[in-house]
Amino acid sequence: MVLFICSTPFQIMNAVNIALTILNDEIIDLYVLDHSPECYRYYLILKESKVFKQVYFLKTRETYSLKKKNKVSNLLSYRKKAFNALNYKRLENNIPNKESCYESIFVAYPDLPTQIIYYYFKKQNFEVKFNLFEDGIYTYNALNKKDSWLRVRFSRMVFGSYVLEDCKSVYAYKPNFVNIKNKGIERLKIPEMKKSKDHGFEIINKLMGFDESHIEYLSNKCIFFDQPFGFDEIMKQQSKLLKIICEIMGPENVGVKIHPRTQENLYQDTCNVINIKIPFEILELNFDINNIILISVLSTACLNPKIVFNEEPYVILLYKLIELQGTDNAFLDIVLKVKNSYNNKNRFFIPETVEELMIILTRLKGI
Fold first, then answer.
1. Coil vs helix vs strand at 164
2. Most buried by CB count within 10 Å: which residue of 197, 223, 235, 350?
3. Within a 13 Å sphere around the CA of 268, how many CA atoms are in the beta-carbon half?
4. Of all helices (H) and strands (E), which one includes residue 159?
């Protein structure tokens, strides 16, 4: 038997894709964790879908999520999380299928609740195989970076090992992009998501609340992906670049996809606002976006069309035009891999100056 543990829409989409393709002959259970208000709805739909033998919903957010507001609440939140981690049997007691025994467990991101579930079932079968599966940029560098000694030591103290050291396989859309220190870990390819209206296509659309009317959001020639940077100065720089884009392309041709964590709509007087809750990948699944220009400072939404669907829309990344501090080199490595994997290199741009950006936009205005 196989178990998937998911907590985000993208993870669930990928679990469904893997279950219906690579593992279509396996008996598969699914855990949906309550990381967003929509997760319970996903759970109810998946129970009826018959993709998985059993689907379980587990509440973890109240106990294990951090609520950051100020220094005092941050300290109390971390203290609460550490206390609950040490008392992990509290979550173990809520595991609904304690009698199950799995040969293989698939994890997209090993947060604390996911680790507790994994280690519980590892006690049931010490030979259980731990697999990492597609969760965006994290998947491609998780096994190549050095984790903090505190996290590793804490994990070994509580669970007896560090979870990523148990990893045997990585399932990714672009396995050749995956950086791994341990050469004994297997890289396996997930088939690109099909745009044909098969069982998986229909289930994913139903899960994410897709509606044909969503095509209106792709009427914009350019889509700018807002990112909720924590510093006002960075947000101002992002807004300034958006104004330049609107001046050249025309505000009627530019739509801004608001990030779910953005607290305030800064763009309503600048151009069209795309404020929908469904992942952008759902629009990609249902419509042809090859002639749309995707623009962001450094959003994975601009990379996923190539990674997940092997498609090549126009992409402009602006991170060299903004004073970002602590930009992850591993992330930039994936950016360059995506850029270099484009068959048409004239569709992917990383301008070095504002002047270069203006030249690129002027050129693309005529496509």
1. helix
2. 223
3. 3
4. helix 149-159
DSSP-derived secondary structure letter, 196: S
Q: What is the pTM of this model?
A: 0.88
Which residue, 197, 177, 198, 196, is CA-closest to 188? 177
CA–CA distance, 101 with 121 (Å, rounded to integer): 7
- CA–CA dist 278, 214 (Å, integer): 10
User: Which regions of the chain are under pLDDT 50?
Assistant: none
Per-residue model confidence (pLDDT) at position 90: 76
| Beta strands 28-33 and 2-6, pairing class | parallel
Q: Are 284 and 305 in contact (CB under 8 A)?
A: yes
Helices and strands in the chain: count of H runs, count of E runs = 14, 13
Which phi and psi angles does 271 have, rounded to 5°? -165, -165
Length of the chain: 367
Q: For residue 231, what pLDDT is reported? A: 61
User: Looking at residue 85, what is its pLDDT?
Assistant: 60
Name the DSSP letter for residue 163.
Answer: G
Residue 364's alpha-carbon distances to 242, 270, 315, in angstroms, are 16, 20, 11
Beta bridge partners of 224: 256, 295
Instruction: Compute the Cα dihedral for 103, 109, 112, 114 and give only its sign.
Output: negative
Sequence-distant (≥ 6) Cβ neighbours of residue 262 within 8 angstroms: 226, 228
Give the rounded distance of the alpha carbon of 124 from its chain centre: 30
Residue 75 · residue 83 · CB < 8 Å: no
DSSP 8-state secondary structure symbol assigned to residue 317:
E
Q: Is 176 helix (H, G, I), strand (E, B) or coil?
A: helix
How many of the other CB atoms lie within 10 Å of CB of 319? 16
Tokens of 130: 């731990």
Pairing of strands 254-257, 186-189: unpaired
